[in-house]
Structure formats: C-alpha cells, structure tokens
Design goal:
elongated; DUF1109 domain-containing protein; membrane; transmembrane; transmembrane helix; NrsF
Amino acid sequence: MRTEELIGELAGGLRPVRRMASPRRQAALWLGFATLAVGLAVLANGLRHDLQERMLMPQEVGQWLASILAGGTAALSAAMLARPDRSSRWALLPLLPLAAWFASLGWGCMADLGRLGPMEGQLGTSWGCLRFILAMGLPLAAGQFWLLRHAGPVRPWPVLLLGGLASAALCSAGLSLFHHLDAAVMILLWHGGAMVLLVLVGALLGRPLLARRPR
C-alpha cells in the first residue's frame, strides 16, 4: 500500500472534533440548570411567610444578592480556570461578593447582639439547613464537575473548590427564601458551616471525575 493511500484510509475514518463550549457558556448553562433546580426545591418547600417583609430590609436584600453573586462568580471562575490559557487570577473573582456576604452577616450578628442581648449567644440547631444544602449542592456540584471534566490535567483543585462554592452559595440563597432563621449568627453558623462542608466533600468526591482524561 502506498503512503498516500494509507494516509487517505486513516484520515477517512477520523471523526470531526467537537469544539468545547466557551467558559462563559459553560458557566451560563450550569447557572441556568442550578437556578431551575433550586427554584423548584424552594417552590416545593413553600416560601417563608415573612419573605415580603424581609425583602423590604436593605440588609436582608444585600445578604441575599451577595450570596447569589458569590455563586455566579464562583461558577464563572471555575469554568475559566478549567482552561489552560486563562489566568489563575480568575480565582479572585468571587472574593469580593463572598466577603460582602459574610461581612453583612457579621454586621447582622452585631445588630442582633445589641437587639437581643446575651440571648443571641444561645445557639440552637438547624439540621434542615445542613440537609438541604448538602442534598441539593452535591448533585449540582457533580453536574458542574462533569461539565468541566476535561479540566483534570489543568487546575483540578481550584476548579473543585470553586465549583463547590458556587453550588453551596446558590443553595444557601434558595434556602433563605423558605427556611426561617431570625438570628444572623445562626445563619452564619449553619449556612456557612454547610457551605464549607459541601465544598470539602464536593472536592473530595469530584476529584476522580476531573482526573479522568478525555479519550
């Protein structure tokens, strides 16, 4: 067989390579899916009775918007860091909304301490927060890791951590629409604790998925 014929035969069996979606498109696809999933979960649980009153408070609105922005920017950062040609500085994108969110919660803790006195320090339990954020967040994080699974050889750990943060922040935003926690310190403890746990568990469970190399 001549070389030209061999090359032609080999080339004839090749399949066209499907181009990957852009990082912004990947982030937008996942955010759309996550918003739909969390929204359906919120509707299934029913909105909290004082939601309208809460949304008239600037601090409450600021906390909620900051958590959504933290989730959205973390999702975009994860998609960007999954590409070798993108700067690692994309990891800094969620820091500002995340800092604003926790700062608003900290301010709320101080306000509650002045309003409620020592009772603010008497913490209760809210396992429902933990269950919802983990039950919703882990599947959402797995979906994002699958979408970014070709990032394995690039920067897997930043992608895993930011992907978990994106899922946890959006789940926390959804949870605040139907779950009633008056004290800001309770929100900080249970929402924040569940988010940290989700990020760590998601990173450990998602590592094998991102480690798979595309065939």
